[in-house]
TrEMBL record:
Family statement drawn from the similarity comment of this UniProt entry: Belongs to the NAD-dependent glycerol-3-phosphate dehydrogenase family.
Residue numbers binding substrate: K106, R254, N255
Protein name per UniProt: Glycerol-3-phosphate dehydrogenase [NAD(P)+]
Top-level EC class: oxidoreductase
Taxonomic lineage from the root: Bacteria, Pseudomonadati, Thermodesulfobacteriota, Thermodesulfobacteria, Thermodesulfobacteriales
Gene: gpsA
Species of origin: Caldimicrobium thiodismutans
Length: 339
């Protein structure tokens, strides 16, 4: 039986740990705080990230990387993207021999502009197998056992199907894909559009505006995503459209909440203090700005989210600029990017 270590006992790591432990798999969470470890091991709850959700008796947690990783053959990475390099550096002695790595991370590294799988591969080598999990999946709903459909992407080999089967559970339906880069890009970029959608609602711009923004946001994701090497169809799938709709309309989304509060007039500093968990889009938007310039792709919504977050632009000015842009054919830029 596989032994699975989950690095990061936050919302997503704990929810995935619950699914796998319910399946009877041998799974352990590597946490950073003793109170979380104690609570998971003795009270069978993670009150800091998933309060009120009873965890299976078999789900264990530890602070000790040796205990979590020495006998594991699959590592699931569920930490914020900007901490991956630091964690890899600290954990390299323990993870460098493990063959299977699954990323649950939805972000891009701000220093290197690399995706989590690119970083893992660079640090751990080509002799390992790398997979990514994407799709519309609020940790809280998964932890409550509510029906969820996700996608796992990896190399075009039988092992991707094995990971799919390993993760699938009665309320957790897993599709497979062979476009890991596309899934990673879709998962990271949707967070930026979720911030935009929150801003739109915070300003009270209405449902027409939000639907238009989500659709044009998807076009921006496709424009940059295909330039970076993702397959177009991936952006219409669970990791793209699916997660985009969820996080742009679901109040449980931390990225949406960041936008909502910004739209209501709070400063970024105030907003980040209120939202104690990671909202990946805040950092991802700076990478998106860099990549859009490098690849000469015009991404007006992402550009305005960058201005609001990093240049203290007033959200209303951004909306006005977006509405005043020159008139276009609906798909002309997508076609142009592909030509
Ligand atoms: N929460 C959700 O609904 C989902 C989250 N994700 C993704 O999973 C990743 C992790 O997110 P969450 O579990 O939601 O975050 P979270 O904020 O709930 O937990 C983050 C975890 O990472 C750990 N961590 C390890 N090293 C860290 C460091 N140097 N600095 C800060 N924290 C560190 C924290 O201790 C904590 O256990 C993100 O990329 C997120 O986009 C993906 C799907 C669903
Ligand atoms: O990615 C997610 C659900 O699929 C979680 O979104 P947030 O990080 O915005 O909460």
């Amino acid at each position: 039986m596989p032994k699975i270590a989950i690095i990061g006992a936050g919302s997503w790591g704990t929810a995935l740990g619950k699914v796998l432990a319910e399946k009877g798999l041998d799974v352990i969470l590597l946490a950073r705080r003793k109170e979380i470890v104690d609570s998971i091991n003795s009270l069978k709850e993670n009150p800091f990230y998933l309060p009120g959700i009873p965890l299976p008796g078999a789900l264990k947690a530890t602070l000790d990387p040796e205990e979590a990783l020495s006998k594991s053959n699959l590592v699931i990475w569920t930490i914020p993207s900007h901490t991956l390099r630091e964690n890899l550096y600290n954990l390299e002695p323990y993870v460098s021999k493990i063959r299977f790595h699954l990323s649950g991370i939805k972000g891009i590294d701000i220093e290197t502009t690399k995706s989590p799988l690119q970083l893992l591969r660079e640090h751990l080598g080509e002799d390992k197998l790398y997979f990514v999990l994407g799709g519309p999946s609020f940790a809280l709903e998964v932890a409550k056992g509510l029906p969820t459909a996700v996608v796992v992407a990896g190399p075009e080999r039988k092992e991707t199907q094995k990971i799919q089967e390993l993760l699938a559970w009665k309320y957790f339906r897993v599709y497979r894909s062979y476009d890991p880069l596309g899934v990673e890009i879709a998962s990271a970029l949707k967070n930026v559009i979720a911030i935009a959608s929150g801003i739109c609602d915070g300003l009270g711009l209405g449902l027409n505006a939000r639907a238009g923004l989500i659709t044009r946001g998807l076009i921006e994701i496709i424009k940059l995503g295909t330039k970076l090497g993702g397959k177009k169809e991936t952006f219409y799938g669970l990791a793209g459209l699916g997660d985009l709709v969820l996080t742009c309309t679901g109040a449980l989304s931390r990225n949406y909440q960041v936008g909502l509060k910004l739209g209501e007039g709070k400063s970024l500093e105030e907003v980040l203090k209120e939202i104690k968990q990671v909202a990946e889009g805040v950092k991802t938007v700076s990478v998106v700005k860099e990549l859009s310039e490098k690849f000469e792709v015009s991404l007006p919504i992402c550009e305005e989210i960058y201005n609001i977050i990093y240049k203290e632009e007033k959200p209303r000015n951004s909306i006005e600029r977006l509405l005043a842009r020159s008139l276009k054919e609906e798909f002309e830029e997508v076609e142009n990017e592909r030509a």
